[in-house]
Amino acid sequence: MALDNINRALVDRIIRVDHAGEYGANRIYAGQMAVLGRTSVGPVIQKMWDQEKDHLKKFNELVVAFRVRPTILMPLWNVLGFALGAGTALLGKEGAMACTVAVEESIAHHYNNQIRTLMEEDPGKYEELMQAPAYAVLKSVIQAGCSAAIYLSERL
Predict the structure, then answer these.
(1) Is 0.70 topped by the overall pTM?
(2) 13: which of 31, 59, 110, 149 is 20 to 30 A away, CA to CA?
(3) CA angle, 48 as apex, 144 and 78 as ends, to 5°?
């Protein structure tokens, strides 16, 4: 797989860190399943883990396709991810879910930073996205709708 006009170092960094993150998420769920797998919350954790397995599979493919060197910290993430998952699961369902929420919030922030970096890397491509008719109005209406949906869904 190849992309024209890409910053190779940036792509390598993004794939490397996201691959490590998906690997770490898999290890967290492995740890949680080791503790809670046979409880009532086991199927919920398994479903989330299955989704992470799909994500990791995709990043394994991207590592090969773009010939990216995985991080040398994988053995550390192996141990720490499992320990984090098992440790939070020892606190019960609430501990395991708190771990998931904390990780997902951190990842959302991380992905938003990556998006900003990519937009700064090639502002011309970002400008193309803003060529939709009445872009500013469309963007504002969609964002307001999303905010309203979130607000209402939290309460109703």
Answers:
(1) yes
(2) 31
(3) 115
